[in-house]
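Form 7-S
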Amino acid sequence: MIISRINTINFKSNKHREAEMRELARLKEFHRQYMKQKLLEQQHMEEELINRISYPELDNPMSTKMAGFLSKFTCAIQNASEHNIMEFFGDETTAKNLRKNLSPECQADSEILRKQLQETEELKDPVMTLICANRMKKFVPKKGILTEEQHTNFVEGIKKTISTIVRNADLDKFEPQDKAAILEMVQKVEESDSVNFGIEAKLKTLVDRLNSKKFKPGFIPPVQVKYLEVVKKILK
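Output:
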């Protein structure tokens, strides 16, 4: 999936909504298989999983694939659509109000896509979202693919999406130092003039620090909680 190959997408037809749904389904299946492989490789009891499962490497394949999808999706929504990106990533009240002026068909499409996106694992945890954001630089449109206005819309849409997801997350589950690092990085995203946000060094420091805490008795990094919830389902 390469953003430089994006064609103009019109979200006014079921055909395009269904294409996005299929892509999300493929990403979810990839995530399921990726997690299953990681878990099967370990071949240990749940106690071992608590000690071993942590935030992934910054260039992990799932975050990269999700960055590609979000880049393509945001570019299409921002430049060739009657939809607003906050229908999918804003709070429920905002999303509902934005849908009011859409046709009934488009309202239904919006709700379906929102539900699918909200259930995506990479967007449920603020650190995972930042890892995904850090991969956005891999999917910058080549020069000439978009007009200057379209490129600006694309960048602003990505920034708003990442900012909204992270700021709406439950950051109080993180220790003060970690929460401050997350907020500092999301501010860098908001102030950036491109999708190369310059957060990689600070993000790596945060991820390494969070992962190191798994060695402390009784501590489970926030991302592990969600992973442990799906362990039994995956291994059934």
